[in-house]
Input
Amino acid sequence: MALQNIGASNSDDAFYRYKMPKMITKIEGRGNGIKTNIVNMVDIAKALARPASYTTKYFGCELGAQSKFDEKTGTSLVNGAHDTAKLAGLLENFIKKYVQCYGCGNPETEILITKNQMIQLKCAACGFVSDVDMRDKLTTFIVKNPPEAKKGSKDKKALRRAEKERLKEGEAADEELKKLKKDPKKKGSSKDGPAKVGSTRKKAGSSDEERKSPPRGLVDEKIEDDEDDDDIEWQTDTSLEAARQRIQEQLTSVTADMVMLSTDEKEKKAKATDKARDNSKVASPTVENSVAENGKTSQKKLVEEVRENLKKGISANKLQSFLGSLPGSAQEVMNALYEALLDGVEKGFANVISKKKSYLAAAVAQGEDSQLFLLRAIEEFCGKPNPTAVKEVALVLKALYDADLLEEENIVQWYEEGVAGSNKDSSIWKNAKPFVDWLQNAESESEED
Output
């Protein structure tokens, strides 16, 4: 079955994850009874997560013809002879109006019907709630025939938990069966041991008479020792203190100081990043107080210097070396770059970031912790008096995630640190939560598949 990306704006993206089957139509009947049968309407509707009756009814409303969808047979019919290209264009309009998020364009949305009989689309990626134009004819049909309620995330988690418990119980039962099977084998081997020794002695004949077979008591002792060894579970203390103690015992006092454990390096890196983050937060007010000769702070100087080079049209490749030559910490440089890129922007931050992603790609490529620096720069920028930037933080995160500038692990780590940190009361975490939840749910669903 041929597949295509959902949404005409994503048709050129070879790695787009949301796909649907290409439409297949068939003309049936003659004269006044001629009809167009959309053969794979059920598969298309399943890919769009919308009832097939909605799309069929939409075709009828737009073409001014009668349409019917049979729930039992899955047949979608529209009166009249219509080209596949024309119906595909109408399906594209349906996707824009009733499937894609009006904020980020993601097709993973859910139809909500309010108490006032208004239709809304709630995005699972960015959390944006889109208001559907109620002047469309299909809205009346949707209100009268609302979609079936999906199982909530709590139900899904309960099912997963029950499945894991069932698997654990099955594994425990298998282990008990294995132990029961091993016990009779051991007893049989201990009983047959002396007999086998005697039989080999008989078969050996006169040539083996000079050799002495081990007495029966020794054979029994060996078998008992083997059984005891099977019951013993050997364990090695793998803690950090035990590893250090073993190194000190094996090496001399001179060489032991030269050995560095990988865990120490990770701890030092984590402490260094935490110190850099704390220093950037603590140093920011002190830096602002230390005014230079021209009356502006060093952080403002960084922003102005980056802004001037961006206005001159510096390339992304040259930007990387330019950022490395700037004074200040890596976090301060990233803060200055992000603020300079969004200079003068009051709304539509995600669109601006998508257009200027090449500069951020050059900055992120500088080191392992560059993605965390970028996330903290977003946090710093949203901390300023700009409510629009805070509201659009989920859209910005999704734009950077789709552009492969941010990885899921770093986003989740940044979010968890922020929620548990001193800035946990900021509204940025509330607005970023729907996107983080979507990332984690998408990962769990992919693991189940």
The chain is about 60% helix and 10% strand. The beta strands are 3-5, 19-21, 25-28, 35-38, 67-70, 75-79, 109-113, 119-123, 129-131.
